[in-house]
Specification:
single chain; 429 residues; alpha/beta; 5-stranded mixed beta barrel; 4-stranded parallel β-sheet; 14 helices; 22% strand; binds iron/sulfur cluster
């Protein structure tokens, strides 16, 4: 979502005359669009500001803006702690960035804009063309979350669930496709909770997008198991452009830990959702997120997670040791022994990697459908992705970016498949 927001921040600042530069010391303004999900996010922002400060020691000070979830969480604290920062803007206020910069230029007073103006934000953004011209483009449809998992800051930094207007989203999708997008990834912190005017759900969006000419692939992320409703599951049967790959975080395989996390579902419920998905589309594959060493996790709870992984066979996943986020209920809990957590994480990652490898191995000597996204710098090699989001690097001197192609896979490593272009006539899985 930060990538989508960063692109929109650029669209908004370009209206008041700013352009991107790749030469750091030339910049008149830095916007650090931050994410609070990762560990030590706040400290990383101060480190980055420190680097800017050093680079500009003997130069005119640039305007320094911190936007995003760290700005929201830290607010005035940031302006107090680091006087080099001129402005903090929360993720639901960034649509005002142009006016705020002009204001700052006039008054030279520090600005803290961290209101939750999500309705106003999307009304404003709708009037600004989305200039993204990537083959695979993000499109935010929903923001915020009402689930309040005990480890997560999103409900505090992005606010309650909000769904954008159906028409706005379809307009933006059509614009993206006319700008060259061939894949659209619908985004939301809780994307499958999308519900506009109690009439349009995520399934309505997918069915409508499925009819857009020239759009070849549809994906959405990130979903909560509780919101995997029948109408959405049925899209995997009916909409040929919806890719048979779903990122569905579970976080732990232990019912006890899921309860401690306030996840609002248990292991059985999660497995039932996966089974329903496989029933409507046997090709569907799942990836997930895992937190290891959540406060209260015992060896038995951890083994439940390993069992679940073996049962589902996730094809890729993100896994981390629990790290407390200030202000969340889990932050006040006693953390587990770090050494033990590290051992558990290593074991989990080995099992996950094994499934990922087994999955990649299946592609060997097979033709594979790839959406070609770009050419690699200074090489006769191209980059694309399979239906399952696996990166593919392949050789050819003749292919077209944006087309679906058959690539014969000849080798693989942990993250990528490698091969050569066969034809643009897609006949492969
Ligand atoms: S559902 Fe996702 S975004 Fe919402 S609180 Fe839980 S982890 Fe955070």
């Amino acid at each position: 979502m930060n990538e989508y927001d960063s692109n929109r921040i650029y669209d908004l600042t370009s209206i008041i005359g700013y352009n991107k530069t790749y030469i750091k010391k030339e910049a008149d303004c830095f916007v650090l669009n931050t994410c609070h999900i990762r560990k030590k996010a706040t400290e990383k922002v101060y480190d980055e500001i420190g680097r800017v400060k050093k680079d500009f020691k003997n130069l005119k000070k640039p305007l320094v803006v911190v936007s995003g979830c760290v700005a929201q969480a830290e607010s005035n604290e940031m302006l107090k702690r680091e006087p080099y920062i001129d402005m903090v803007i929360g993720p639901q206020s960034f649509h005002k960035i142009g006016d705020l910069i002009l204001d700052y230029q006039r008054k030279k007073e520090k600005i803290n804009e961290t209101e939750f103006d999500v309705v106003e934000k999307f009304d404003r953004l709708q009037k600004i063309p989305n200039l993204q011209n990537k083959i695979s483009s993000y499109l935010t449809v929903q923001e915020g979350c009402d689930k309040f998992c005990h480890f997560c800051v999103v409900p505090y930094t992005r606010g309650p669930e909000y769904s954008r207007s159906f028409e706005q989203i379809i307009n933006e999708a059509e614009n993206l496709v006319s700008n060259g997008a061939r894949e659209i990834i619908l985004l939301g912190q809780n994307v499958n909770a999308y519900n506009y005017n109690k009439k349009y759900k995520l399934s309505s969006l997918i069915r409508k997008l499925n009819n857009i000419n020239n759009l070849k692939r549809i994906r959405f992320t990130t979903s909560h198991p509780k919101d995997m409703t029948k109408d959405l599951i049925d899209c995997y049967r009916d909409c040929e452009k919806l890719m048979p790959f779903l990122h569905l975080p579970i976080q732990s395989g232990s019912n006890k830990v899921l309860k401690l996390m306030n996840r609002k579902h248990d292991q059985k419920y999660y497995i039932a959702v996966v089974e329903k998905l496989k029933k409507v589309n046997k090709d569907i594959k799942i990836s997930s997120d895992f937190i290891v060493g959540y406060p209260g996790e015992t060896e038995k709870d951890f083994e439940d997670t390993i069992e679940l992984v073996k049962k589902i066979g996730f094809i890729s996943s993100y896994s981390f040791i629990f790290s407390p986020r200030p202000g969340t209920p889990a932050a006040a809990k006693k953390t587990n022994n770090l050494e033990q957590n590290e051992k558990r994480l290593k074991k989990l990652q080995d099992v996950l990697e094994n499934f990922q490898n087994e999955n990649n191995k299946k592609y060997l000597q097979q033709n594979c459908e790839v959406l070609i996204e770009n050419k690699l710098d200074n090489q006769e090699k191209y980059f694309g992705r399979t239906k399952y989001m696996t990166s593919v690097i392949f050789e050819t001197d003749n292919c077209k970016i944006g087309e679906l192609a058959n690539v014969k896979i000849t080798s693989f490593n942990k993250k990528n498949l490698f091969g050569f272009y066969k034809t643009n006539k897609v006949e492969a899985a």
